[in-house]
Write a structure and sequence with these properties.
Distance between the termini: 82 Å
Strand order of the largest sheet: 1-2
Shape: elongated
Radius of gyration: 21 Å
Helix content: over 70%
Strand content: under 5%
Largest sheet: 2 strands, antiparallel
Low-confidence stretches: 67-77
Number of strands: 2
């Protein structure tokens, strides 16, 4: 039962289902998770009793709004702690985010390689396939698939705090450098490198090689950080050149 409830919660997290969002129909969800419908109903009842889901007779199953118990620890205080950083809009914050992510992602991949079960590995493979195939889509879709992959790693670590922190960091990163993130996925050579790095992380986790998983995750984040810094530096260089050109034009037009 615990495995199935964890799987359903992972599905909610990976698809970014917000409070009020409807889960797939029972028949479709049972087929997707490869479980019987009675077993699925039992897991849904269990999650409903915990306040995670709401079932409406004849109307489907929905993600429940957060309860006081949810927000008293992982929800409100954590979101509140990050909110001033996101609201500030200071570009430099993304450096701090990447610094903590290099440490967190490495540990998360390490623990995922130690703890991932069959369902975790199946979710990770699905997330990998999704992020690799997203290359032909728009940048926003690629960014979402990338986030879902790393959240699948977080789920496989079976550490609830890591999962919660990762979700918050992704939101903060998107707030800080949304345009740079979009450009990251538009560079063909970068996209291929990211795919290869994601494959390396997934392979190490699936094959139960924790130290290799840690190294692969760290190398991936270092590559992302270096690439984003290059994008940021190029944008700053273009702004400087534009200001110089504008001043020269104004000078030329001055009688």
């Amino acid at each position: 039962m615990a495995d199935l409830t964890d799987t359903i919660e992972a599905l909610i997290a990976e698809r970014g289902l917000q409070p009020g969002a409807r889960l797939p129909a029972e028949r479709a969800l049972a087929a997707e998770l490869n479980v019987s419908r009675p077993k699925l109903r039992e897991a849904i009842r269990h999650l409903s009793s915990r306040g995670r889901l709401v079932t409406r007779r004849g109307g489907g199953t929905y993600v429940a709004p957060p309860t006081d118990a949810d927000t008293s620890f992982a929800g409100a205080p954590f979101a509140g702690a990050l909110a001033p950083l996101a609201a500030a809009g200071e570009p430099g914050y993304w450096h701090d985010v990447m610094e903590i992510r290099k440490s967190l992602d490495a540990d998360m991949a390490y623990h995922a390689a130690l703890r991932a079960g069959p369902q975790d590995k199946a979710r990770l493979c699905a997330a990998l396939e999704h992020v690799v195939s997203a290359g032909a889509t728009d940048a926003a879709t690629q960014a979402k698939a990338d986030s879902a992959f790393h959240m699948a790693v977080a789920e496989a670590s079976h550490n609830a705090v890591m999962r919660q922190v990762m979700a918050g960091l992704f939101d903060l990163l998107r707030h800080s450098i949304s345009r740079s993130l979009e450009k990251l996925y538009l560079i063909p050579s970068t996209a291929q490198a990211l795919d290869d790095q994601h494959r390396a992380i997934a392979a190490a986790i699936i094959e139960g090689r924790p130290e290799e998983a840690r190294t692969a995750a760290l190398l991936h984040l270092e590559f992302v950080e270096d690439t984003l810094r290059g994008i940021e530096d190029d944008a700053a260089r273009r702004r400087r050149a534009s200001r110089v050109a504008q001043r020269q034009t104004e000078k030329d037009l001055t009688p």
